[in-house]
Write a structure and sequence with these properties.
Strand order of the largest sheet: 2-1-5-3-4
Number of helices: 3
Mean pLDDT: 95
Radius of gyration: 12 Å
Shape: globular
Distance between the termini: 29 Å
Bound molecules: FE2/S2 (inorganic) cluster
Helix content: 10-25%
Structural class: alpha+beta
Order of helices and strands: EEHEHHEE
Length: about 100
C-alpha cells in the first residue's frame, strides 16, 4: 500500500496509508493531524497549507489558478508551498513527504 508522510511542526514524522484519489488534506484530518482545512477542501481558506519536501515538489501536478491565488495569502510561505486539499494521492506519489508549517500547531 502507498504511504504519505507528514512532518509535524515539532519535527516528528507521521506516516499514514495513502488512499488513491483522496486529497492529502483528507489524510491529515482523518488521522488527527493539526491541519484545520476550514473550507473542507474547496480551495477557499488556505488553512490546509503545507510545504512539499523539495525532492517531491516537481512530481506534483502544477497548481491551478485558484490555488496559486490562495497561496499568495498563506502564513509561512515557502518555494514549495501547496494547498494539501489540491494534492490527490496516486501511486506515483507513494512516499510523498509534506511538512506542516509552524502555523499548524
Ligand atoms: Fe480550504 Fe484546502 S481545505 S483551501
Amino acid at each position: 500500500m502507498s504511504k504519505l508522510v507528514f512532518i509535524l511542526p515539532d519535527g516528528t514524522a507521521q506516516t499514514v496509508a495513502a488512499i488513491p484519489d483522496t486529497s492529502a488534506m483528507r489524510h491529515a484530518v482523518d488521522n488527527g493531524l493539526p491541519l484545520d482545512a476550514d473550507c473542507g477542501g474547496e480551495c477557499m481558506c488556505a488553512t490546509c497549507h503545507v510545504h512539499v519536501d523539495p525532492g517531491w515538489f516537481n512530481k506534483l501536478e502544477p497548481a491551478e489558478e485558484q490555488e496559486a491565488d490562495m497561496l499568495g495569502v498563506v502564513d509561512d510561505p515557502s518555494p514549495t508551498s501547496r494547498l494539501s486539499c489540491r494534492i490527490l494521492m496516486t501511486e506515483k506519489l507513494d512516499g510523498l513527504v509534506l511538512r506542516l508549517p509552524p502555523t499548524h500547531r
